[in-house]
Amino acid sequence: DLFGVSMIIPLLSHHVKALGASPTVAGIVSTYGLLQLLSSTVVGSWSDVVGRRYSLLTCLLLSAFGYGLLGMSTSITWFVLARIPVLFKHSLSICRALLSDLVSESERPLVMGHFNAASSVGFILGPVVGGYLTEHEGGFYTSSFTCATIFLVNALVWLLPWSEALIPCSDTNASNDASKGCHDNNCSAPGKQRSGLRWKEVSLFQPAWRQLSSVASKIMWDLFLVRLLMAIAIMLYYSNFSLALEERFSLRPKVTGYLISYSSTLGALAGFLVGPVTKLYGNNMPTLLLHSTVLTCSLIFMYAAAPSVWQVVLTSTFFTISTTIGRTCITDLELQRGGVRASGTLIGAGQSVTSVGRIVAPLLSGLTQEFSPCGPPSLGVILALSAVGLLLIRIPKWDRK
C-alpha cells in the first residue's frame, strides 16, 4: 500500500504544474488532509458495521480506480476527479482494526509495531522507485498505473480463500465489551480452528451512524487532544527541516536528504522495539505514553537549540524511535478505553484527528518561520509540553477508573 502511494506523493505537485496549473490550483494537492478528515471516522465506523472484508475490498478497489484515473489525467479536470476516491483510501486503518480484532490485548502493541515497521519500509522504497521512473518519458503515468496495479493485486490477494488459526481477542482481564466476542465473529476459543474467516452478515446499507453514536458516549477527548497536540508538534519538527538546516548550518540539500533517509530507516526499525519496550513497562501503556511524550518534547527542544549538525543527527536518531512508540501507545490506549468492537470507528477517529494536524501545521509553520528558522520546532515544544501536562493530569484519573 504505502510503497505504491509513496511513489506518487512526491510527484503530484510537479505533475499538476506540468498540466499548466497556477500555484493556487496546485494547492489542490493539499486537500488530501481535508478529505481524510471528513471520511476517516465514517469509513472506520462503516467497517465496524459491514465487516472488515467488504470494507477493505471496497477501499482497495476504489483506490486502484483513483490511481488509474490519475495515470490518465492529462488535464486539471481529470486530476481533480482522480483525487475524489481518496475519500476511501483507508486500507491501512481497516488493516489496523482487523489486527486489533484478531490478537489479544497483550500482544496488540507488538503486532502493531511490526505492522508500522512494514509500512515504513514501503514508504522508504517507494520514493526511490518513483524518482527513477520519473526520469524516463511518461514516468509519472507509469508510476500511477504501477500504483493502481499494486492495489488491484492487494484486492485479489484479499479475495483468495485462506484459513487461519485465530487467537482470542481479549485477555481474561479485558473489558466486558471486548470479551463478548470480536467484530465479525473472528474470535474463537484457544485451540479451535475455523476453515476460513466467517464474517458478520450485515446489510451493506446499514447506516454507519449507529456505530458512531454508540461510541460517542465513550468519546475520549483527552486522548484525542494529546494526539492532536503531538501530531502538530511532530509535523512542525519536520515542516521546514531542510530549509532550516540550510539556513542554520549551510547544509546542502543532498546531505539533508541523507539525514531524512537515515531517520526514516530508524523509524522502520523502531517498530520492532515496541513489543520489547511494552513488556519492559509491564504493558503499562499510560506510563509509556507519558515517558515517550516527555522524550519527544525534549528532543524537539534539543533540535531547536542545536548548536551543531551533530546534535541534529543525535536528536533525529532518538526522535523517530520516541514518535514510533508514542503513536503505537496512543492507538492501543484508544482501543483499550473504547472497546475492541468499535476498533474501526476509533482508529478512523484517530486518523481524523491526525488529519486536522496536517491541515493546521503548515499554517502555523509558515507564521512562525516569519520570525526565525527555529520558530516551528519552538512552537512544537510548547505544544508537546501542553500534551505532557494534560497526561500528568489525566493519567491518575484513568488509573482510578
Automatic annotation (TrEMBL):
Keywords: Membrane, Transmembrane, Transmembrane helix, Transport
Mode of membrane association: Multi-pass membrane protein
Cellular component GO terms held in the UniProt record: membrane
Transmembrane stretches, start-end: 20-42, 111-133, 139-160, 219-239, 259-281, 288-306
Cellular location(s): Membrane
InterPro entries: MFS, MFS_dom, MFS_trans_sf, Tet-R_TetA/multi-R_MdtG-like
Xref: SUPFAM superfamilies: MFS general substrate transporter (SSF103473)
Domain of life: Eukaryota
PROSITE patterns xrefs: MFS
Family to which the UniProt record says this protein belongs: Belongs to the major facilitator superfamily.
Protein name: Major facilitator superfamily (MFS) profile domain-containing protein
